[in-house]
Amino acid sequence: MGTSVEKSAANGNSPPFSVRPVRVYADGIYDLFHFGHARSLEQAKKSFPNAYLLVGCCNDETTHRFKGKTVMTAEERYESLRHCKWVDEVIPDAPWVINQEFLDKHNIDYVAHDSLPYADASGAGKDVYEFVKAVGRFKETKRTEGISTSDIIMRIVKDYNNYVLRNLDRGYSRKDLGVSYVKEKRLKVNRNLKMLQEKVKEHQGKVGEKFQFVAKTAGMHRNEWIENADRWVAGFLEMFEEGCHKMGTAIRERIQERLSGQQSKGLLLNGYSSGSDDEEYYDEDEDDEEYYYEDDEYNVEDDKK
């Protein structure tokens, strides 16, 4: 015989708040916990005036099997949830699909999540929330547009080289970052060349002001001065950029020669490759670099939970 809360839920009515707090359950992966996660949990917590919010979080084995690789470990994700003020209790090792047995075990009255159907990769059904929706125990929350774990990862991937340099500057070694010797040196050379180019362009305005002063002093006509100034500055920048390109190419060739020499020495000494992780890798155009990832690392389209 069910409780009054369970009977009310089965009839589609809100449970009587005088009986006990309404136990609301939300689940997810919560990787790189962000304000979009927090807002969804806030909505779940506020879905009833007197709600007790339980939050289930899938472990690494389940997540990697049905969704893909995470940045944070399961323990890190659990701990992030424990520090969210809307969460009353964290349930580790949460199931991918909710069933009646799980609801009964934790005395759950309602399950809160956004209403979009999530394909059940485990094969148990078309929607992981199909069961709770069918029995009238589902509370809809709204997603926060513009933020998701996949979006954050995409930003990092997009600016990969900048974040590699950032961490190198903060004391991480190239081996910590999985970066070859050539890659590390090439990134640093390119950055220094870009900084030098930016510094020259920054002083371009000051050079123009000096030209203007000289032209005014010499009584040169304004249009004639503008034409000459543009030609002088353009000529200087063209010579500078050509010099930077030649210098950058020379530095990269020296790095490659050094690496090739080290590998050749290893072959002569050992009769085979020394097994160094220093790969021969060079791209002429930094911006055209491509990075490839395994299909199962992270599914951007299926940003479930």
Relevant terms:
9% strand, alpha/beta, single chain, 50% helix, 305 residues
Task: Lay out the secondary structure.
Layout: H1 4-10, E1 22-28, H2 35-45, E2 51-57, H3 60-66, H4 74-82, E3 89-91, H5 100-105, E4 110-114, H6 130-134, E5 138-141, H7 149-158, H8 160-169, H9 181-202, H10 204-218, H11 222-270
Parallel strand pairs: 1-2, 1-4, 2-3, 4-5
Helix pairs in contact: 9-11, 10-11
Characterise this structure:
This protein is an alpha/beta fold and 305 residues long. It is built from eleven helices and five strands. It has helices at 4-10, 35-45, 60-66, 74-82, 100-105, 130-134, 149-158, 160-169, 181-202, 204-218, 222-270, and strands at residues 22-28, 51-57, 89-91, 110-114, 138-141. A five-stranded parallel beta sheet has the order 3-2-1-4-5. α9 packs antiparallel against α11 (222-270) and α10 runs antiparallel to α11 (222-270). The protein is elongated. The two termini are 33 Å apart.
TL;DR?
Helix content is about 50%, strand content about 10%.
Helix proportion:
40-55%
Q: What can be said about the biggest beta sheet?
A: 5 strands, parallel
Average pLDDT over all residues: 79
**How far is the first residue's CA from the last residue's CA?**
33 Å
What is the number of beta strands? Answer: 5
Regions with pLDDT < 50 over 5+ consecutive residues?
Answer: 1-10, 272-301
In DSSP terms (H or I, runs of 4 or more residues), the helix count works out at 11
Give the topology string: H per helix, E per strand.
HEHEHHEHEHEHHHHH
Specify the oligomeric state.
single chain
Biggest sheet, strands in spatial order? 3-2-1-4-5
Which structural class best describes the helix and strand composition? alpha/beta
Q: What global shape is seen? A: elongated
